[in-house]
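Newbie here. two chains, one complex. Structure please?
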Amino acid sequence: MKLIRTFLKGGVFAPDNTRSARDVATWNAMIPARSVVPLLQHEGSPARCVVERGDRVDEGALIGSAQGYQSARVHAPIPGVVSELTRLTLPDGRESEAVVIELDGEFQQLGRVVEPRDWRGLNNERIQEQIFDAGVVGLGGAGVPSHVKYSAPRSTALQCLILNGCEPEPYLSNDYRLLRERPEHVVEALEILVRLLAPKRTVIALGGHTRSAASGVRRAVSAARARIQVHRFAGKYPQGDDHVLVRSVTKRAVRGASPVSEAGSMVVNVATAIAVYEAVVFGKPVVERVVTVVGGAITRPGNLKVRIGASIGDLIEECEGFREPPHKLVVGGPMRGSTVTDLSQPVTKLTTGVLALTEAEVQAVPETACIRCGRCVRACPMGLEPVRLHQLIAQRRDRAVTEAGLFDCTECGCCSFICPAGITLAEDLKRAKSRLRAEESDGRGRS
Amino acid sequence: MAVGDRNAPSYSGDTSHTWDISRLILSGSPQIHDALSTAKVHWYLILAALPAAVWGFAQFGVPAFVVVATGVAAAVLTEALLPSRRGSPADGNSVAIGLFMSLMFPPGAPWYLVAASAVFAVGVVKWAFGGLGHAVLNPAIAGRVLAQVLHPEAMSRYALPAGLGGGELEGGSSVIMALRGGSTGGDPLQRLAELGYPRSGLDEAVTEWLNTYLLTPVGVQLPGGYIDPFIGLAPGGIGEVSAVLLLIASAALIGRRVIAWQVPLSVFVGFAATIAIWGAVPLGGAVLGGDVLFHTMHGGLLFLMFFCATDNTSAPATGAGMFVYGLLGGCLAAILQLFGLYPEQLAAALLIVTFFVPLIDYVTKPTRFGFSRRTGQPLLYKARS
């Protein structure tokens, strides 16, 4: 029995509310009759629309081409007719153009058997091209276009490639289902990435409830004769954050403001690995993803394989609707996700979960004066003092707050989660970051 | 939004409160909370102190109840009558101050002394400094120490619990003061026996049972006299005497993360180490011959370390800071216990250590993730080929 490791600095033990959804096999959601496909489903500049109203598109056809260095392709999730080009506000607050497709015509890929391609015969440029063509981005929610991440210039050889199978946030179990149901595909994706990136070592990290997928993953690793280690970690949040995970696996800590590539590591999310596998082995673009639909208000929680552009209302209906009045509808996880009040919000590549939380689950506390208990300081995995940053922000001491490490904040939400005074620490820090970033780029524009 | 609205998903729940999309809440992340609010922190603490308080009432009778009722009432009234600043009586903070302060009083303390101390604790130490979260010192401790200064004689008069026959101790002083001047080779229990200090039948029975069935097989003998203070048959502050009730309550508090475990642990370590080294000296014993068990259960350490030292506002923020604070506080408390002029004044040790907290917080600032602890600079990893 190997000791289960954890990280020492900060973090919180959030309630394990994944169970209701995680023990149910992933099922296929119904194909939506109408798909709303935002052109901004990644970090970077939005894709450029290459279709017009009235155009007929096939399943998987290119509808948005990447523009600029950091951008990603967008494809039609369903065959049909482009009925509308519109704009919408995404749950994270960003504005995006969107292509609306009404279902019509025939599915060319769905239900057909496609022969897997032998990727070992492809050279690295070809593999990169496949990943780019398929519009693969970080499906864990970060949304960095994968071809950019994999081709970014590195000053040093990649020391460690980590597949992040840790519980990303409480409630979410979509990564766990993929690890349970498709471990051999995850391992094959890692083999592709090992070929592409030539890391010194490769690790699959499991943490929290995903630890119970360990035996299947180990079997897949030995069946593939891959040189991949499996590490297991405790279910403390945020074990699945890049910085914390890289520290746990490689003992190298990089400040939150810097990417983990500075420690010679790369972290890949499970869903992204599956997307890489499908892109390289089947040439399949990212037109669907697994979404966890869970929360006390959901009648039949589960993980659904959903076409991009389906509405979250459809997903909830698929889970037999609400059994209790929801208090908050959240897109994403409970720690980092955003609330929405609009059920027509489409599922995007970055939608990890749809949560319908009851008031009892939210457990909001009334706001009081700060009691200076220091819980936020002890909970911060980045070793910051959230209460002090919060004071400095209120006093508009921008330089001091930057020096105190505002930009090292990874927005994990631990400080707000445990604050007995109900102070919106994480949210205010996040706002201050975007304000200071905006002011800085304004300043650059003027000079 | 240009995209057409969809029908709301079906609803199969209780129709007495139907669901309505307009009632959905918009909020920033995180969307959930661990539910421990400011008020809950204080009320859980109060709840945890109640068994020990009730035990005190049962052992010391009506005077004890009068002390505690006066303390709590004066504390709450003070906050209610002063112009509202941060916090209100509903958040439990003032109740906790009044309760913890009066539980450290001797059972027979005069009501006006309790009331004056409570008014000082809430009105000056807490309210005047800015209210909830702004008390630089721990108000309960400050109130207790003020009473000691105002009326040292009344604050040194302890009674025997009903379970030991009641009545005042010989000379009106406490167990701790009884140890002063004795010369029994460092054994406090022997000194108490000399003074004719009573021992309950329960103590004898339990000690004998333990020795026969549990300890003899491992080659240890427990002298009589430890079981009484463990269950709470000892003179002392109203809420301080029952070790077992305090231990159970604090285990629950630590388990629910209401109090940080680092504080009581480090206070205990600091205290125990100092007692172990010097504990026997005042009684004519050798260095390193101190009786840690005896001193832990007599003199009010347990209440102090679980309910006062863990104060949210005055204790340091980081785990490392808590250790420094606790070790210092424990050491100083032990020194006062052994050599202090008055009994039961461990609270003063904590008050003194609280003055060091800003310094402790500064020295034990958390090391930022990805920074070198030594140089304070971000860690850089050189390219390794």
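Moderator note: Chain A touches chain B through 98 residues (CB under 8 Å). Chain A has a mean pLDDT of 93. Thread marked as resolved.
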